[in-house]
Predict the 3D structure of the following.
Amino acid sequence: MIFDAHFHIVDPRFPLVANEGYLPEAYTCGTYREAAQTLGITGGAVVSGSFQAFDQAYLVDALRTLGPGFVGVTQLPATVTDREIAELDRAGVRAVRFNLRRGGSAGLPELDTFARRVHAVAGWHAELYVDARELATLHDTLVALPAVSIDHLGLSREGFDNVLRLAERGVRVKATGFGRVDFDVADALRRIHGVNPGALMFGTDLPSTRAPVPFRACDIDLVREALGADADHALWLNARDFYRMAASADHEDLR
């Protein structure tokens, strides 16, 4: 089984905001379902992109359409109320994303207090889209937060040691966006798994918006070959447990 810890739904029925002049093509729940069936995906996390900013309607609709086993990662302004966070939690949202690379989310000055607040209110974790070269200055903040993950293996070879240090301290790392990074993915997977077998969480990154090389089915084979008998940790167990930890009692279907 595979838990797809990172993919996007782009539904033109809902507002889209151009980011750096970019607007993605449609990628609906129906299109994703077709891909998921061929890949053996049984659950996953719909992640809000920069081009969706703070819109929640598309995400709530996507979670309702995809059904049990799927959760959401949203972007919110730090001014959101506790009541609104609780309502999104009931809809299946399980994390807040800080898109430090492309914007459209709450920003770095709000990271510490906002990440702590969503965890206190709803048990959510924080997800960061950030270049690994920036992680050295964020290390102390991130390891002190209740629960954190880093997108796309940290993206950059130059900062990869920062990713390893965070993984050693319990930060999760998404094994996603293999076509976005500038290093050997298999080696990176083995090194992260070596310092923390619970860290890696695989995701397709579909539809791979703006990625130089989009997701390919063989990326799953790469994970299996790199991790061998432990591949299920990255493909299913780690993400299932991480998102379940943030789940409220009315979302027990991820167990």
Summary: The first helix runs from residue 29 to 39. The chain has nine helices and eight strands. The CA atoms of residues 1 and 40 lie 6 Å apart. The two ends are 13 Å apart (CA to CA).
